Amino acid sequence: MTTSASPAPPDQVQLTRDPETGIEAIRARFAAHAYDLHRHDEWLVGVTDRGVQDFLCRGVRRRSTPGRVILIEPEEAHDGQAGAEGGFAYRMLYLPRPWLRGALADAAGDPGFAASLTDDAPLGEAIRAACLAMEEPAERLARDAALDAVLHGLRPHLARPARLGPARRDDAVARRARERLQDDPARDPGADALARAAGAADRFQLARAFRAAYGTSPHAYLLQTRLLRARRLLAAGERPAAVAAECGFADQSHLGRRFRRAYGLTPAAFRVLRTGVPDRGAGPG
């Protein structure tokens, strides 16, 4: 008896766009040929997830394997195809020129990538985390923090030194930001808006001041504040769906994922333990 090989999975491209920054995140899988020679207006930063990603850039064919980082400047011609049987998969961020220019406002001159393919595991993980933050329901602060981590990882490849922190702690900025988050934890201000409200020069100063004062990021603090509020409401008998909406989570599933990661059980299970009243109409979260 003969058996036939399983058909290759179909090509897939998933695109998510952040309307506030214009940044796009792409998660793609191709069995063979991906695309012909073309150009983009944006800066492209990506990481190969699976297989061998063969592409032409700067007149040289390159082969990216899992974990390697691809860096392509605006208007650089490139193509893409599988470099081995089994196809390939990757994630890519498309960074608009105005966004990168504004984020690098501390340095003069036009930036440029030293190479189009590099081994940089921390940057690869930062790209994956940013793509995931854009694909799934996430707080504005979470997306901003994930994109800032990508920017930090890109600086060496753009010949831009890391931004230096202030010589002293700025407790007043950190305190104002914390008060803003405590006053309305269901609100999602975004890093730039929170920095303005706290009187910081920019979101980078805010992040440094907040970590120096409280040992964590504004986003992590906001998440902890929301989870504490959710515990109190669940213990008082409120249903998970209502708690999710009141505490600023995208939906009940979003609350469920965060709650389980923090406390090891679902919101519904926690509610039952504290009240003895099952939530008959609740879903798995």
Automatic annotation (TrEMBL):
Region annotated Disordered, chain positions: 165-190
Biased composition (Basic and acidic residues): 167-190
Residue ranges annotated for the HTH araC/xylS-type domain, each copy included: 175-273
GO molecular function terms listed in the Swiss-Prot or TrEMBL record: DNA-binding transcription factor activity; sequence-specific DNA binding
Superkingdom of origin organism: Bacteria
InterPro entries noted in UniProt: AraC-bd, AraC_XylS_family_regulators, Homeodomain-like_sf, HTH-like, HTH_AraC
Keywords: DNA-binding, Transcription, Transcription regulation
Name of this protein: AraC family ligand binding domain-containing protein
